[in-house]
Amino acid sequence: MPILLGADAQVANHLRTVLPPDSQVVASAEQLLQWLDSHPEEYAVLIGPSVDVPSAMALAERLRMTMPTTTVVLLRHDVDTAVLTQAMHAGVREVVAADDLTQVGGAIQRAHALAVALRSGSAGKGREGGRIITIFSPKGGVGKTTMSVNLALALMRGGENKVCVVDLDLAFGDIAITLQLFPSHTIEHAIGGEQYMDEEFVRQLMTRHDSGLMVLAAPSQPDARERVSGALVHRLLETLREHYDYIVLDTAPAFDEQTLTALDETDECIIVATLDVPTLKNVKVALETLDVLGVAEGRRHLLLNRADDQVGIGADKVEGILGMSVAVQVATSLDIAKATNAGRPLMLSAPSHPSSKAVRSLADRLMGVSSASTSSPSTPRTQASPAAPASSDKREDSPRRFRISRR
């Protein structure tokens, strides 16, 4: 999350409107350096207008040597050529007018995108382990949670694959209630555990569903969201990769820090949309934002939920509006709502239902297997079958031609 130094209360409050919710504001360079010592993953430092130019340049020089992957943004009331020249030599990546919120927000987005690129260029290549599938929509109420649960169950293939679902809608997550689970632990209990997080630690936070699906529930109180950092989410996903074949993430309908971290780590991103103009408008804006951030490029799949021709917008129009093809359509069905209300998702209660088949076809695509060879999810297998990874797998440096299930 960005950290801001050198801004009075009025300027800081003004800038907070475009900064991520968990951004920090410090009053001195000493406090800034102390924070950075304990948060080496920091991707942006904003030096505010109340820091004089010589002090700002000295600080930027120091950060260039000690934290070269951290973007330094200099905020000035007046930007002139002399300041720009000094900033360039000191290693400042951007100089922005402090009162131009559009420029400030753009600088933060570019800083985050650079951090993502640097991270994926070093640690991401050749990364082994389970595949992370992120379910995202910029608008609530589109059936994202229902699709997350049913997709996770489809990925299990009757017990062949070890799958977990993580509820990252930290303020209003519904994964647990959808499955009629009453967890004793949630992701909130992982706070502070980044340094010693391992399989046993995470296992104790999970709740097991009767199907064998493992669930990491969202906090019971919305205020816990602010205390779940991006660093915690990153470490959690690293650990889950080591012990699960597939990790399904149900995210919040917003580009918050936790969702951005999930998108950074994702192997496949499922964009959920419904056939109404407001949702499609929001999805288009979200896709443009993902393009700017360089997130999940070539690894996005569009799922149309409640897809009925009667509403006047067909799949062809959606593809024209959004500029991407529809991966799967799930028609409106009262059976889905009834199954959800009964706590028995459609994938379990009616595996032959057209909606179940549609979701299973998406799961097959993500697993890189032929739909014709998919076994019924209600019939566990005794031996895993080899399956080629999906063509959009980003781990091209070390392709996994066969998947061995963790059981």
Task: Offer a quick outline of the entry.
With 407 residues, the chain is α/β, with parallel strands linked by helices. The chain folds into two domains: 3-123, Rossmann fold, CATH 3.40.50; 127-373, 3-Layer(aba) Sandwich (Rossmann fold), CATH 3.40.50. The protein has helices at 9-16, 29-38, 53-66, 81-90, 101-124, 144-156, 175-178, 199-205, 230-241, 257-265, 277-293, 315-322, 334-341, 346-349, 354-367; strands spanning 3-5, 24-26, 44-47, 71-76, 94-97, 131-136, 163-168, 207-208, 214-216, 246-251, 268-274, 300-305, 326-330.
Structural overview:
Residues 370-391 have a biased composition (Low complexity). Residues 131-290 form the AAA domain. Residues 348-407 are annotated as: Disordered. This protein has 407 residues and is α/β, with parallel strands linked by helices. A hairpin with a 5-residue loop joins strand 8 and strand 9. It has 2 domains: 3-123, Response regulator (Rossmann fold); 127-373, P-loop containing nucleotide triphosphate hydrolases (Rossmann fold). Mean pLDDT is 83; it is low at 121-127 and 372-407. The chain has helices at residues 9-16, 29-38, 53-66, 81-90, 101-124, 144-156, 175-178, 199-205, 230-241, 257-265, 277-293, 315-322, 334-341, 346-349, 354-367, and strands at 3-5, 24-26, 44-47, 71-76, 94-97, 131-136, 163-168, 207-208, 214-216, 246-251, 268-274, 300-305, 326-330. Strands 8-9-7-10-6-11-12-13 form an 8-stranded mixed beta sheet, with helices on both faces. It has a 5-stranded parallel beta sheet with strand order 2-1-3-4-5, sandwiched between helices. Helix 6 crosses helix 15. It has 15 helices and 13 strands.
